[in-house]
Amino acid sequence: MLRNWEIRKFYIKKGLFYSGLFFLIIAMSQPQWGKKEKILSNTGIDIALCFDVSKSMLAKDLKPNRLSNVRASLNLLVDQLVGNRLALVAFAGTSFVECPLTSDINAVKLFLDSINCDLIQAPGTDIGGAIDTSAQALGKSRNSKAIILITDGEDLYGKARAAAKEAKNKGIRIYPIGIGTNMGEPVPEIDGNGNEIGVKRDEKGEIVISRLDSVLLNWIAKETGGKAFFVGDKGSTLPELMMAIALLPKQGIKNSITTRYNDQFQIFLFLSIVCFAVEFVLSTRRKGNA
């Protein structure tokens, strides 16, 4: 009987240990379920985050590349824009609304995390079309409106200045965030599996270099009453951008909905502690009886 109990206790301890480890791993993944929606009436502005996803955003003059560098900063920016309504627009050779105007910050961040250079197959960078799409996403409300234009500034279609003037006529200010360097960097060539296989070349076989067009971005900002910012090695542009946004007049935004998901890791952490505690007690008893 004693031997049978020792064998059973051995397997019970193993089960408790692995169960505790399993629950601990789940707790560390910070599971969330059960959302809370809260209706708010506050003041804010309508902002379109207009994100360049052309292949030039894979250039590595900013590490690890332009796209990854600025996406991390934008997640922090979105956190600072709680209380405003946000839309997300992606563009390359064409543009589309990735996330319509909403006050649900979690939804915006979810779409932002999915931004990549495979979203749009049309090559090139149509900044003018992106500004037009962003203006449409902002709608016709009387709220203050702004476009945060994240791009390297290479306007391959030549429509950016006309689109900026039209945005100005609609009362929209544009705040470009220039990504890249004036020296430029070769654009990587990516295969169908997402692997870098060299550098992109034009029809003449020459390496395609992507350079920041700070002149155009400064012009767009000045024309619309905004301000241009440039991401480099000197630090974050977020504080300066937030100060500029804060100066815009704010109107009441009714029926704003914010969604928060409940953290549930405590449940699995508790179960993990219980399993390890019982396993420890069984081990202690065995040593005490020895």
UniProtKB/TrEMBL annotation:
<protein>
    <recommendedName>
        <fullName>VWFA domain-containing protein</fullName>
    </recommendedName>
</protein>
<keyword id="KW-1133">Transmembrane helix</keyword>
<feature type="domain" description="VWFA">
    <location>
        <begin position="46"/>
        <end position="245"/>
    </location>
</feature>
<dbReference type="InterPro" id="IPR050768">
    <property type="entry name" value="UPF0353/GerABKA_families"/>
</dbReference>
<dbReference type="InterPro" id="IPR002035">
    <property type="entry name" value="VWF_A"/>
</dbReference>
<keyword id="KW-0472">Membrane</keyword>
<feature type="transmembrane region" description="Helical">
    <location>
        <begin position="265"/>
        <end position="282"/>
    </location>
</feature>
<keyword id="KW-1003">Cell membrane</keyword>
<keyword id="KW-0812">Transmembrane</keyword>
<dbReference type="InterPro" id="IPR036465">
    <property type="entry name" value="vWFA_dom_sf"/>
</dbReference>
<dbReference type="Pfam" id="PF13519">
    <property type="entry name" value="VWA_2"/>
</dbReference>
